[in-house]
Amino acid sequence: MLSSLYAPFDCSSKASWSPRPSRTPLAQCAFLIALLGCAGAAQAAADDGFSPYASLGYNYDDNLFRLGDGQPGYDNTRGDYSTSLQAGGLFSKTYGRQDIALQAKVSRVSFRHFSQLDYNGKDMLADWHWRLGNHLEGKAGVSYSEVLAPYTDIVTRDRNLRTQRHAYADGGWTFHPSWRVRLAYVQDRYKYDLQSQTYNNRVDEVNEAGLDYLASSGSTIGLQVDQVKRKYDQLRSIGNQLIDAGSTQDDVKLKVVWRATPVTTLQFLGGWADRKHAFYTERDSSGVNARLQATTVLDGKVTLDGAVWRQFEGVESAQTSYALNTGASVNANWNLSAKLLANASARYQKRDYNGLLVAASGLSINDSSRNVSAGLTYVPLRLVQLNLSAYRESRNGLAAAIFGNGSYRANGVSFNINLQY
Fold first, then answer.
1. Which of 73, 119, 170, 217 is the least buried, fewest Cβ under 10 Å from its Cβ?
2. Element spanning 401, H or E
3. pLDDT, tens digit, 9 for 90 and up, residues 87-116
């Protein structure tokens, strides 16, 4: 499944790996079965806080490069099969009141036809949940990931690996049983190995401060202010000018977490956003920026999650720097039995673009995308998990033709075998 190759690093997802891409599928399955035979010894390690895992995935996407409808594709081929294999380990342990979590994995992704996309990945994460006394606590951590970047907004058949270095720290002080003040800092560094995409190399920073009222029911309401900065490593060439495509966004938001019932939660984060740009300042924007999310559980078996949003978001493109996104999503998970789980999701989003060449053109450029997916997860043994999923993705609008290959549809299926000891 192509989208799984773009997913953020999460060792708990138990994806897959390969010692050598030349192994046949039968040999790969035999290798995983051999690993399963070592489960007894590995379980002892897991009891000490360490848990190794391995996974093998087979994926098919019928529009790998997100080509426009009617385009024949590269080498007259639009889709491709891929094999993704990964191995890694998770470590978690509590020292006093300090929780430490470490994750690491190596991966090999191989494509049947477009072998130029084959790559080896390395991912790692370290997280520290700290507590000091009875009133101070927070988290700090770092992560590193290498993934194949999406082809949604670029036109190329070349491999484009994206490296992300993520660091964060936050803390809260409960200075009164009903009041808490909090601070947070997040930094993300992105780097692309494809020369034509290095203009997207950048640093994103978020500074946040908030004050919350803590109700005895577990609900909270508070005020949050944050500043989001984006700085690119390179200046952009627009006509005969070199410009700075960086931006700064200041937000003032209301933050509400309402525990409506023991199984239903509503979360709202929204307010006013003021976005300014280093160049084309006449296209600076301000307005409502908000997200509402609801989660509930039905009969103890079905979990529903829905969200609506209106948010500014940066865009990885040479023609535009940001978009105003409005959309909605719904997700459902159903425990059919103790060993079988079904899931389904749907998402719609409209993006209105601005900045850089879009700002200079004066055109109204937008697109809309739709995504639906469904899957089944079966756990035949305590250490084994099988997953089968399918998805459909579509995009249309003027922006699809300007930034990508045009309006398109894509369908895919994925099968994964996961082992965690």
1. 217
2. helix 398-403
3. 999 999 999 999 999 999 999 999 999 999
